[in-house]
Structure formats: structure tokens, C-alpha cells
Design goal:
The complex is a heterodimer. Helix content of chain A is about 70%, strand content about 5%. By secondary structure, chain A is an all-alpha fold. In chain A, strands 1-2 form a two-stranded antiparallel sheet. In chain A, helix 5 packs across helix 6 and helix 5 packs antiparallel against helix 8. Classes of the chains: A mainly alpha, B alpha/beta. Chains A and B meet through helix 1, helix 10 and helix 11 of A and helix 2, strand 10, helix 8, helix 9 and helix 10 of B.
């Protein structure tokens, strides 16, 4: 029975990580309809920013979060302003091509700058755990989970409780109508993508405690984000929390009670079932066109 | 105008002598312009980018050493070595295409092997088609040896054989382990290594209580390791590459699981392992095929220790055993060129003779004994076991050549 509870805890904590890494993807898709194939590379950049600040300046990884937020915000801002804004209204394939290009450029620049070395953030509390009733919880994962919840709640608050959020949602619902109502949609798009990049980078910083950092680490997170967003509902940001947790739980329970080999297959099988039977996501609030 | 004085005549004569000396080495060997063009593909990006970069470094080191000695001496001339290489991005299909490009477009004389069983399987199929002998020190899956190929030669033993030392050491440890859990990444080399652990364990009184292969796509190992922890094995044996080995160690600490011993088929000997894990990598055992304290030697590098020191001086880090094996493969090709007296550019018939030459004799160099069996595997290279002790790799098995004793059992995470 302990193994079952442990598996649930593992799945929940992993789900929090998945949710944090996917919220930005959902935001960019929901508002602009952009499937950002370089999403995982923003995760990678966030992880590297934390790593280098920690190594070079000796600053605790949690204190690097504002730096990551700021750097990725401006990266997203400029990428959107200079390139993606020009594709608004174009067929989706154009955004796939462009963001796939970003993926190639970012991952190869990272490779050139930092080589293919595998790196980890090793703090004095890395890998330390809390144990109770035979269950083990790593501090870093728990902290990552809490931060992930805070990020998603913050994003929810921004979108649903502020004027800016209202403008973002209005633009997402009907671009032309929002424009007619005086919303400067290109500014909203730029802000949205910058915000998406910033929270994705933040997630990257958070996972740097847990995962191995290297320039090619991004792509699996893009794929994971895609699965999470489909499960939670495409374009419905709060749904990423549910999507992430479901994915984490399924992966963890499948690994525990079946085999690790089949857990990845089950994840994609689940994705297939949701796409066929409930394309608007588990909560039924996603965008289906 | 003054006639040239005695000093000037002496100077001119000296210059002439120096010029001759520059062109003719002390053995009366002249330098040739035409280089041996030697090609290879390695992963410099992708999942095996780091491991592949080690192999590239190894070949560059070999080239620099040989060229610093004037080049490869054949028929009283010295020919420099020119390396041509490409990044296969850890993709087997790229590796195959690039080897074909090396042969058909770059017109290389010889081919060296890359890194990773999947890549080398694809690359060696092309070199076989074009009848280029390929020596490889960084791939050892069984699939490489059951194809009936004639032109593929491995400096390493077969993957299951590579991990034999990790099982042989177990009965010598105190308290003697009796149970093992085996995990492995489900890719050619790692899966074969896991199978090797599984095959040898019962022969040495070890009961396998858990065996599981997992996909490379799995990035979180905590649930898997919790499951294994619940079965309480004495030792954990892992078929791995460096990324897998780092993930396993991070996971073991996160799930607070300390088996008495952890053994990897590959990974801890790659510098990144200790660079990234630091003290968390302590006490880990790894299969190896070479350590610098072994009593091997040759004419190019001198002793194994010399090779080690020169390598550290050049790259600022110790060589991994796959780097030693890769250089040894290049040395074997060099030896073939010298003994068969083939000068560049090589012809197809020359390469066929090199292939036959490889099968015909035993080689000995700083890497140790090499004899290629009918399937191309190195039949006589003994596997060794190393352990991380005090942040360094210490050769701990077999005892007759070991430089230190194994530290066992591992200290629990919470007592470190």
C-alpha cells in the first residue's frame, strides 16, 4: 500500500512540474493560436540561466528566478515583436515553421556556447528528502511543485482578475471584435508571448534542481507540453494544471504497476483517446476549431 | 663589392645542412606532402553528443601525436594524417549518409568508428558495402557482431562481456551480495549490457529479483527506483550511458535508496558524471576496459601511463576507456599501413589486404592485447572494474592489476 501512496505522490509532484512547463505553451496557443515548437528551448534556457548564475555568482537557485523571468520575458518580447507578429492571420503551418526554426537556432546556439556537457545544479539541499510513514518526498520537487502552483495561480489571477487579463482573453476570443473595440492586439500578442516565455523560463529554472541540464533537453518538454495542453484543453490555461497532474499520475502509476517501458506508450495512448473522444480536453473548456 | 667572407660561407653551408635536415629525418626518411585522409562520423549533438565528443578528441589526439612525430612512416617517407569528420547528431541514418559521403565525395583512405551502437551499426553497414575496414572503440552491442560482416573490427569486447567484471567482483565483496536488481535503457548497448548482467549473475550466486528495461524517452526515474527500492536488492546493476547514469544517481538520492553497491555498464568513466554529481557520485562502480595503471605499451605513446599523462596535458581531463580504445583502433590501422607499406591514396585492393591483415595477427599497444575474432570482436581484452573513490576513478578489479580495494557497502545518503 505504501508503494501506491508513494506512486501517487511521485505522480503529483511530477504533474506539477509538467504543468509548470506547459502553462506558457497553453497561453501562447490560446491567445494567438501559435503552436510554439521552440517551447522546450525556453525551458532549457531557464535551466541554463539558473545554472550559470548559481555556478558563477554562487546565488541560490531559487533567488535566480527573477533573473530568468526578466531575461525570458525580453527574449519572448523581441521574438514576438520582430517575427511572430508578422505571421498573425497566416496559416498555422507558418508558425510551425517559424518556431521550429527558433528551436533549431536556440538549441544549436546553446550547444555552441555551452557544449553538449551534462550539468546539474548541486546545492547543499539537492536530493534531500522528508520522510514520514514510509513515504519519501524530495524537498526540491516539493518546492518546485509549490512554485508551479503559485505560477499557475498567478497566471489565472492575471487572466481572470485584471484588466490586462480581460484584454488578453478578449483578443483570444475574437481578434477582430477586440480590435474593433479598440484593443491594440499586436501589443497584447507581444505581451502574451513575452509572458509565456517568462513563465516557461521560470519553469526551466525550477526543474534545474531535478533534471539534467543540457542543450538538447528542450524537445521532450515541447512534446510533454503538447500532451498536457491536449489533456487540459487547448488554450485553457488553468487546464494545464489538471493535464499535468493527470499525465504525471498516469506515468507514475504505469511505471510502478506495469513497466517503465509502457508508461510512455500509455501517455500517448491517453492523448489519442482524448483527441478522439474529448478534443476540448478533460474539463471541456479547450478550444476546438 | 666584397666577396662573401668565411662567415657567410659557413652560414650558407649551415643553412644548407639545416635545410636537408628539415627535409630528411634522422632515419633518412623524407616527408611527403600527400596525407592519409582518414574519416569518421561521431555524435557531437543529440543524446550522445558528449560521449561522441570524447571519441572525436581521441582521434584528434592520435592525429596530433602522429603528425608531431613527422607522420606515418612508410617506405622511407613520412605521410601526415588528415582527419575529416562530421557530426551525425546521434542519428543512425545521418551516420550512414555521412560515412557514404566520406567514402564517395571526400575520398578518404580509411574509416574510423564513431560512438554509440545504433550509429555504428548504420555506419558500419556502409563501410562494409564499400569494403572499408572500420576499427571502432565505442560500440559493442551484440547486433554489431552477428551480421557476418568482414570489415568491422571492435576494440571492445561484446557488450555482455564488458560487464562480466562487474559480476565477477561481487563474490569478493563483504558482506557478500546475494540479490540484484537490473535496469537498463532500452537501446542497443545498454540493453545488451543489462542482458549481460542477467546472464552472468546466476553463475556467481546472485539472484536477480528485478529486471526491467526502460525507454530513453523516460526522463523521470523516481517511480521506477521506488519500485526497485521496495524489493530491497543488495546491489543495483544498470545498463547505461552517461546521461542515464547521472539520472539514476540523482533519482537514487531523491528516493533515498542506497543499495550496497551500484554498478553501471557505462557512464561514470565519462568526466561529466563526476563533474555534475560531485560527491553524489562516490562509491559507484563501473565497467571499464582500460585504466592507465595497466602494464601495456607501444612505440607511439610509450606506456599506458604516458598516454594518460599526455592526454591530461592536452585536454585537461583524464581519458575515458572508449577514448583509449578509439586511439588503439587508429593505431592498429597505422600499424597495418606501415607493415603492408601502403601509401596514399589507398586502393580498394589495399583495403581488402588491410582487412585480412587485421584477422591475421595479435596486436599489442598501450591499450592492451587485441585479437579480432571471426565476427570482428576483440576476443582477448580483459574487462576491468573501476570505482569512484575520493572523486577519482580507482581500478579495483581484477585484484592482480588493481590499484586499490573496493569500498563496500555504499554509505547511505543520509550519512554522507
Amino acid at each position: 500500500m505504501i508503494l501506491f501512496w508513494q506512486s501517487l505522490i511521485n505522480g503529483l509532484l511530477l504533474g506539477g512540474i509538467y504543468a509548470a512547463c506547459s502553462a506558457g505553451f497553453s497561453l501562447a496557443f490560446g491567445v494567438m493560436g501559435v503552436v510554439n515548437l521552440s517551447h522546450g528551448d525556453f525551458v532549457m534556457l531557464g535551466a541554463f540561466i539558473t545554472y550559470w548564475i548559481f555556478i558563477l555568482a554562487g546565488i541560490d537557485p531559487f533567488l535566480t528566478l527573477p533573473f530568468t523571468l526578466l531575461i525570458l520575458f525580453f527574449l519572448g518580447f523581441f521574438l514576438q515583436r520582430l517575427t511572430i507578429n508578422r505571421l498573425v492571420g497566416s496559416p498555422p503551418i507558418m508558425s510551425y515553421l517559424l518556431t521550429f526554426g527558433f528551436h533549431l537556432v536556440l538549441s544549436n546556439l546553446a550547444l555552441r556556447a555551452w557544449t553538449a556537457d551534462f550539468r546539474t545544479v548541486q546545492t547543499s539541499y539537492s536530493g534531500l528528502t522528508i520522510s514520514f510513514a514510509g513515504l519519501v518526498i524530495p524537498y526540491s520537487r516539493l518546492a518546485t511543485f509549490i512554485m508551479a502552483m503559485a505560477v499557475i495561480l498567478g497566471l489565472y489571477f492575471l487572466l481572470y482578475r485584471t484588466e490586462t487579463g480581460r484584454l488578453i482573453r478578449a483578443t483570444a476570443q475574437d481578434r477582430e471584435m477586440a480590435q474593433l473595440m479598440g484593443v491594440k492586439i499586436f501589443k497584447i500578442y507581444t505581451l502574451t508571448f513575452a509572458l509565456a516565455a517568462a513563465i516557461t523560463g521560470l519553469a526551466g529554472s525550477l526543474i534545474s534542481f531535478t533534471f539534467v541540464i543540457h542543450p538538447q533537453m528542450g524537445l521532450p518538454f515541447t512534446i510533454t507540453a503538447f500532451c498536457v495542453v491536449v489533456l487540459g484543453g487547448m488554450g485553457y490555461v488553468p487546464g494545464t494544471l489538471w493535464g499535468g497532474i493527470i499525465l504525471g499520475l498516469v506515468e507514475s502509476l504505469a511505471t510502478t504497476y506495469l513497466t517503465a517501458g509502457i508508461s510512455v506508450a500509455i501517455t500517448f495512448f491517453l492523448l489519442l483517446i482524448i483527441l478522439v473522444t474529448r478534443p476540448q480536453g478533460i474539463l471541456g473548456k479547450g478550444v476546438v476549431e | 663589392m666584397k666577396k662573401p667572407g668565411k662567415n657567410l660561407r659557413s652560414f650558407s653551408a649551415g643553412l644548407l645542412v639545416l635545410s636537408c635536415l628539415f627535409c630528411i629525418s634522422p632515419q633518412g626518411i623524407t616527408h611527403a606532402e600527400q596525407p592519409y585522409r582518414i574519416g569518421f562520423t561521431v555524435p557531437l549533438t543529440g543524446a550522445f553528443g558528449k560521449d561522441g565528443a570524447l571519441v572525436k578528441d581521441a582521434y584528434v589526439f592520435w592525429q596530433e601525436t602522429v603528425n608531431a612525430q613527422g607522420g606515418i612512416a612508410v617506405k622511407k617517407k613520412r605521410y601526415p594524417v588528415e582527419l575529416i569528420y562530421y557530426d551525425d547528431k546521434s542519428e543512425p541514418q545521418s551516420s550512414a549518409k555521412l560515412v557514404e559521403k566520406l567514402i564517395t565525395e571526400d575520398k578518404v583512405d580509411l574509416i574510423l568508428g564513431g560512438f554509440g551502437s545504433s550509429q555504428v551499426i548504420a555506419a558500419s553497414a556502409v563501410s562494409e558495402k564499400f569494403r572499408y575496414p572500420m576499427t571502432c572503440g565505442a560500440a559493442s552491442t551484440l547486433k554489431l557482431f552477428d551480421r557476418g560482416f568482414q570489415y568491422y573490427f571492435s576494440l571492445l569486447g561484446k557488450a555482455p562481456e564488458e560487464v562480466r567484471g562487474c559480476i565477477e567482483i561481487l563474490p569478493t565483496l563483504t558482506p557478500r551480495p546475494t540479490t540484484a536488481a537490473i535496469l537498463g535503457a532500452n537501446i542497443p548497448f545498454s540493453a545488451d549490457a543489462a542482458d549481460g548482467f542477467k546472464a552472468y549473475a546466476p553463475q556467481f550466486g546472485i539472484k536477480v529479483i528485478h529486471f526491467e528495461l526502460f525507454p530513453m524517452a523516460l526522463i523521470d526515474y523516481n517511480s521506477l527506483l521506488h519500485k526497485v527500492k521496495g524489493k530491497k536488492p543488495d546491489v543495483l546493476l544498470v545498463g547505461s550511458h552517461s546521461l542515464v547514469a547521472i539520472r539514476v544517481m540523482k533519482g537514487l538520492k531523491e528516493v533515498d535508496f542506497t543499495p550496497q553497491g551500484v554498478f553501471f555498464s557505462y557512464g561514470p568513466t565519462v568526466p561529466d558524471f563526476l563533474n555534475s554529481l560531485a560527491k553524489d557520485g562516490e562509491y559507484v562502480f563501473a565497467a571499464s576496459e582500460w585504466t592507465p595503471n595497466l602494464p601495456y605499451r607501444d612505440n607511439v605513446f610509450g606506456t599506458a601511463k604516458n598516454f594518460y599523462h599526455k592526454y591530461v596535458k592536452r585536454f585537461g581531463r583524464p581519458p575515458d576507456f572508449v577514448e583509449a580504445a578509439s586511439v588503439a583502433g587508429a593505431l592498429v590501422q597505422l600499424q597495418a599501413l606501415q607493415e603492408l607499406e601502403f601509401t596514399p591514396p589507398l586502393k580498394d585492393a589495399d583495403r581488402e589486404k588491410i582487412m585480412k591483415y587485421f584477422y591475421s595477427k595479435r596486436f599489442d599497444n598501450f591499450y592492451g592485447p587485441i585479437r579480432f575474432g571471426p565476427d570482428g570482436a576483440n576476443e582477448i581484452h580483459p574487462p576491468v572494474v573501476v570505482q569512484v573513490q575520493g572523486g577519482k576513478l580507482v581500478h579495483v578489479f581484477p585484484p592482480d592489476t588493481a590499484e586499490g580495494k573496493p569500498v563496500y557497502p555504499m554509505k547511505p545518503w543520509k550519512k554522507r
